[in-house]
Amino acid sequence: MHRSLPRAALAASILAFAVSTAHAAGWTVEGRVVGVQDGDTVTVLDQAKAQHRIRLSGIDAPEKRQGFGERSKQHLSDLVFQKPVEARCHKKDRYGREVCAVFVGQRDVGLEQIRAGLAWWYREYAHEQSPQDRLAYETEEDAARRERLGLWQDQAPVAPWDWRRRSGHRTSSGVMGEK
What we know:
Structural class: alpha+beta
CATH architecture: Beta Barrel
Number of strands: 8
Strand order of the largest sheet: 1-2-3-6-5
Number of domains: 1
CATH class: Mainly Beta
Low-confidence stretches: 1-5, 8-23, 172-179
Mean pLDDT: 86
Radius of gyration: 19 Å
Number of helices: 5
């Protein structure tokens, strides 16, 4: 019996380590933002002069031709264009973009888009966020709604995923109805 205690402790330690590092898995891109495609996609030029097309994780911003789309893009540009960023990436999407939380200093750019009322918290992908990020994104979206900031000024704002589906809008990836 006492021989199994060290094995159980070892197993518990391994499990705790695996759980703690599972969310931390991924890679980091550091560089300068050289392009802003819309309210949730940027291009980062790294030190090796490689370009990275980055989709901000946790948010979905209005399309450029959708209400508040240009304002969302401009706000993101004001936050990041020509600034050094750290992108903490966890996957590539179906279009080859790196999906990342993007930071200017300590500021989470996706959270700033939500806080300004210029993006939705993308609940469909909330499982990819840490519990702390889920809480922060949800709290800031609720506050922006209450204060009627940005797109929440509209009487019935249409989420980008619904707008794409309804309009048959082709995205930059060429796919209708998806981003």
